[in-house]
């Protein structure tokens, strides 16, 4: 019996055939539509552009943001009405406050939906885009350099869809899954918002350096590289952060003097707890 199968060939859109030739992974071809190419959407898009097997489409009303998306290889559209209805995955990356207005037209599109919006639950998303596989993902902006952390929660997703989500999150960093959607606000408070806490710590450390007499540029260089180097070590050393902390802390030395201030009253820990709780609570409000 002949093995060639013209109907399958004809059923494939041309880009799929192109992608199949390019990657040799025909089964993993996918069209991804990014709705909202702002801070978070574009951070992910930059990574997705490195995956040669994805057809990337972007909708954003802001011309400058469309231009930068086009510059990394995406097909860009100003309005949903212009977008070809050829989607395997629709990624909603607009603000939670506009989700109710932006999402409903995508109910007419095929494919699954992945939302990165803080606070917006699967039940609400289903009300907006209809019955279909829906995945919530909480990414973070280090995705822009392939160092992101993404946490997924999936309803109605089979292994193929989970694999596509992991492909999209894996190309921009690490991926974890939660089985309880109620934890998504906690995830948002730690890894979604977390980069901002770390950037603020860099600001504080640089400011402290200036107050101790360092030139602003030098103070910022020291603070930035110290946080970057400590973060990389914490990830790669294979030892608990507490062990790495002790390796810096000579008994009776300078670090011990500083940590006594930071830890003695539990002030920093309390502050971080309160900050994370505030972020979690705001996520609940947005929902
Ligand atoms: N910024 C971050 O670090 C993170 C953000 N998120 C989530 O990502 C989502 C987007 O946040 P950001 O990127 O920070 O906001 P942003 O304001 O930078 O991006 C939102 C984009 O949506 C676009 N937009 C507005 N109306 C639209 C429409 N009708 N169609 C298509 N695009 C439209 C805007 O032009 C803008 O570019 C939010 O829901 C947020 O909760 C999640 C994790 C981290
Ligand atoms: O600030 C926010 O609401 C979004 C979600 C996590 C990071 N940025």
From TrEMBL:
MF annotations from Gene Ontology: pyrroline-5-carboxylate reductase activity
Pathways per UniProt: Amino-acid biosynthesis; L-proline biosynthesis; L-proline from L-glutamate 5-semialdehyde: step 1/1
GO biological process: L-proline biosynthetic process
Every Pyrroline-5-carboxylate reductase dimerisation domain range: 181-286
Keyword Transmembrane in annotation: no
Predominant localisation class: cytoplasm
Localization of this protein: Cytoplasm
Superkingdom of the organism of origin: Bacteria
Catalytic reaction annotation: L-proline + NADP(+) = (S)-1-pyrroline-5-carboxylate + NADPH + 2 H(+); L-proline + NAD(+) = (S)-1-pyrroline-5-carboxylate + NADH + 2 H(+)
Family annotation (SUPFAM superfamilies): 6-phosphogluconate dehydrogenase C-terminal domain-like (SSF48179), NAD(P)-binding Rossmann-fold domains (SSF51735)
Key words of the record: Amino-acid biosynthesis, Cytoplasm, NADP, Oxidoreductase, Proline biosynthesis
Annotated binding of NADP(+), by residue: 93-96
General function of this protein: Catalyzes the reduction of 1-pyrroline-5-carboxylate (PCA) to L-proline.
NCBIfam families xref list: proC (TIGR00112)
UniProt similarity note: Belongs to the pyrroline-5-carboxylate reductase family.
HAMAP family in the cross-refs: P5C_reductase
Name of this protein: Pyrroline-5-carboxylate reductase
Organism taxonomic ancestry: Bacteria, Pseudomonadati, Pseudomonadota, Alphaproteobacteria, Rhodobacterales
């Amino acid at each position: 019996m002949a093995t060639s199968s013209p109907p399958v060939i004809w059923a494939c859109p041309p880009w799929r055939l192109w992608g199949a030739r390019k990657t040799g992974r025909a089964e993993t071809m996918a069209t991804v539509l990014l709705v909202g190419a702002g801070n978070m959407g574009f951070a992910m898009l930059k990574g997705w552009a490195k995956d040669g097997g994805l057809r990337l489409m972007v909708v954003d009303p802001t011309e400058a943001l469309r231009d930068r998306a086009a510059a990394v290889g995406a097909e860009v559209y100003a309005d949903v009405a212009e977008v070809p209805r050829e989607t395997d995955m629709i990624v909603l990356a607009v603000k939670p406050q506009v989700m109710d207005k932006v999402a409903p037209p995508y109910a007419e599109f095929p494919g699954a939906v992945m939302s990165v919006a803080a606070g917006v639950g699967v039940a609400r998303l289903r009300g907006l885009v209809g019955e279909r596989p829906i995945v919530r993902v909480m990414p973070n902006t280090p995705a822009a350099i392939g160092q992101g952390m993404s946490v997924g929660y999936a309803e109605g997703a089979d292994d193929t869809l989970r694999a596509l989500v992991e492909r999209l999150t894996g190309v921009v960093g690490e991926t974890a899954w939660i089985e309880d959607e109620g934890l998504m606000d906690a995830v948002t408070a730690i890894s979604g918002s977390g980069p901002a806490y770390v950037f603020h710590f860099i600001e504080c450390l640089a400011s402290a350096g200036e107050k101790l007499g360092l030139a602003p540029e030098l103070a910022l260089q020291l603070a930035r590289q110290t946080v970057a180097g400590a973060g990389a070590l914490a990830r790669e050393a294979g030892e608990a952060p507490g062990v790495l902390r002790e390796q810096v802390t000579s008994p009776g030395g300078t670090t011990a003097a500083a940590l006594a201030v930071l830890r003695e009253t539990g002030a920093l820990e309390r502050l971080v707890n309160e900050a994370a709780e505030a972020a979690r609570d705001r996520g609940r409000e947005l929902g």
